[in-house]
Amino acid sequence: MAEETGALPSRSDFSAWYNEVIRRADIMDVRYPVKGLYVWYPFGFALRNHTYTLLRSLLNRDHEETLFPLLIPETEFMKEAEHIKGFEDEVYWVTHGGLSPLDVKLALRPTSETAIYPMYALWVRSHADLPLKLYQVVNTFRYETKHTRPLIRLREITSFMESHTVHTDWDDANKQVEYELGLASEFYRELGVPIIISRRPDWDKFPGADFTMAIDAVMPDGRTLQIGTVHHLGDHFSTTYNITYEDVNGEQKLASQTCFGISERCIAAIIAVHGDDKGLVLPATVAPTQVVIIPIIVGKRGEEIMAAVEKLESELKAAGLRVKTDARDMRPGAKYYHWELHGVPLRVELGPRDLDNSQLVCANRLGIKTTIPRENAAESVKRLLDEAHDQILDKAEEHLSSHLKTVTTVEACNEMLEENIVVVHWCGEKACADKLEELTNSSLLGTGVRSKYVVDDDGPCIICGKAGKTALVGRSY
Amino acid sequence: MAEETGALPSRSDFSAWYNEVIRRADIMDVRYPVKGLYVWYPFGFALRNHTYTLLRSLLNRDHEETLFPLLIPETEFMKEAEHIKGFEDEVYWVTHGGLSPLDVKLALRPTSETAIYPMYALWVRSHADLPLKLYQVVNTFRYETKHTRPLIRLREITSFMESHTVHTDWDDANKQVEYELGLASEFYRELGVPIIISRRPDWDKFPGADFTMAIDAVMPDGRTLQIGTVHHLGDHFSTTYNITYEDVNGEQKLASQTCFGISERCIAAIIAVHGDDKGLVLPATVAPTQVVIIPIIVGKRGEEIMAAVEKLESELKAAGLRVKTDARDMRPGAKYYHWELHGVPLRVELGPRDLDNSQLVCANRLGIKTTIPRENAAESVKRLLDEAHDQILDKAEEHLSSHLKTVTTVEACNEMLEENIVVVHWCGEKACADKLEELTNSSLLGTGVRSKYVVDDDGPCIICGKAGKTALVGRSY
């Protein structure tokens, strides 16, 4: 929590920059004595809370929040063969309670299908119980053997939102998939984070799903970060866990299901997408402090200025803004440095000249300065925050669009992948994808791409030349 | 989630009543396939969220929220000898990650001292860093071998608020103990739950504490439920984990610490203390629905009434109230039953006569009916909710005061313990407490009792007759 000065590593070395910002901007402490487990600093946790409050408010339109146990008995966990196969290397097992071995081993949930669906089997009786749409925000666990990284690859995912819905049939579940994708799009728009949606190839879908739609963001170095998934589960799990209902004609039918997850990678995306060489750049929608007021004390008018600052603070707070005044006895420049590092969207300065001219000097986090009249300050400040949000979204969109490159040869693909996501055509055969991935050290992210910067069309497969469709290729975190 | 009718078990059989209310009022499902782990229904979880939002708002006055990992390495966990001895029978151990045994076993936190304090040792450097006051709301785990019960004795405590503070010296930490007790008292006053505070005897204090202050509520059957604890940790843990700071004179000093916990037993207290033979009785401060509007449709004025109901609902919502309209096509009586079972503090009826007379008929959950003018309805409704809160608090206070019995003989103690908490005098010797506990099948809860119904004074020990002090004796959940 001690403040450090000196320049941050350049964004061009993204990993170094990210690790340093996470630390200096009080997001997480990486010194916890277990690999892959991190401690949230209060500032980071406040950012986390505002972000999940936003996500909850979107979900609460048609879902209800609930909470299921962390521990899943091995007997339930092992029921869905495909699912367990997908997770068996990653599950933490509790084997002892006190000094005694347990009769049945307990898994720490890596995700909660096998905890929730046995209960859904009890809860779903009739078509009148459907659709059922619940979600929870929980800690989940993966025994990651790869390189771990705060918010991105953790052994304890501290903030996993998982939604689990049940429907009368496949089509209704499919509508829900679209609904959840819309919800995720709205969420990320509020965070100013542009996304690309695509359908993961079959070998990369969620274990036990009919198909997986994934949401990717692009990092400063052109690598992708998967920041959300929506899975159409069909009736795989409802078959295994016997989730059936009586339809209008009195017949027993198998239900169809979806699940949808967003983890604290959404915070990683906020940090990585918007940040700059001065530190965090937070969207006002989730910034723990939206406005910082800096009194500029020169000469003898200190008291007068502090009274004006207090009045301004309470006015802005009354308008629902999250405001702090930094009245510490230090140079304004050092204060600017501190609040810029922490990404505060708007700084408001109030000094003698502003007092005399009934004005306020505002600087947003992108460095754009505006002088506003003191009268109706709350209204002007809100407008400036909205404008700042548009500016960071524009900047992020520009970054994304300039890092999408369409290629037709493996050579060009390889070259472009150094700093970009690459758009190719692909015939749909796994053999061709395998070959492309091997030749370019990348992943075929998906098809059916939804992005205003990518045309989803037909073309010859980049490997075999047969008829193909648009596909995304990238290197992923 | 299916509604059931028929009378609840009588409150005189508290256990039966409690289990049935938990189920029928959609608080928790006990059918999860692991003993001692339960599933929150959405309604119960909404109650949980409002309750913890209240608790957080009180804590946020001078604490900051944070989040530490669930998993604690055995090496850290084992450092504080007294502490581990207190928990060794209750800790769940993770021994495997995927298919491989772990090098260092990981404990699921039963409480977080051993996770947090190694980090505090890194964070606390100077007197300027103190006091440090953080809290988290997390799931914790105890391998309970006793009879488990939803919200009261669980293997996964899903909602444990734990505060951990660090101070320059013992006295400052002691002030914090008093502050936390005041905070807990305010919290329970907002829940309408009367409490008794006492200092636990030395053999019953938190493992590693200088002393433990406990907060008890009294259940309908006169048994006690511990619903909060504040521990003065002195420098036990700061010695073990090396939490030191440089004082104003540049000398290294050991810090002094406190911790403070409130679990989901606070929800159990709400349910148990206020409930009646019709079901839950919720305080408006945390009720997921504070007001339910029931349209009374008779004759041909259905549309007119529904329009008036909609207008009323939006008016009440605009005033910040949590309101639902129950427009289902069923008898009003069945609706009353449903909302009474779920503890909604106020029911507002709106029928043709009310429309004609510009009035609303209100019934609070204790059955008290009031007719209010339609004009300024929100204001009247808020007043009725405040009155209802006073009424449930009064009722609960009366229950508590009438279940506190002062005795001077072991025989009387035994008799009174059947339905009460008992006030005795005790000399302070463990031998006398052991004897009393054995003869009465009870626990000596504590001394230094703080309650307006108990006089803390001197008197002869109930066992040995020597000079003693007031002590509480009870049977506990």
Automatic annotation (TrEMBL), chains A, B:
GO terms for molecular function: ATP binding; proline-tRNA ligase activity. It catalyses: tRNA(Pro) + L-proline + ATP = L-prolyl-tRNA(Pro) + AMP + diphosphate. Residues 56-283 form the Aminoacyl-transfer RNA synthetases class-II family profile domain. Consists of three domains: the N-terminal catalytic domain, the anticodon-binding domain and the C-terminal extension. Belongs to the class-II aminoacyl-tRNA synthetase family. ProS type 3 subfamily. Catalyzes the attachment of proline to tRNA(Pro) in a two-step reaction: proline is first activated by ATP to form Pro-AMP and then transferred to the acceptor end of tRNA(Pro). This is Proline--tRNA ligase. It comes from Methanocorpusculum parvum.
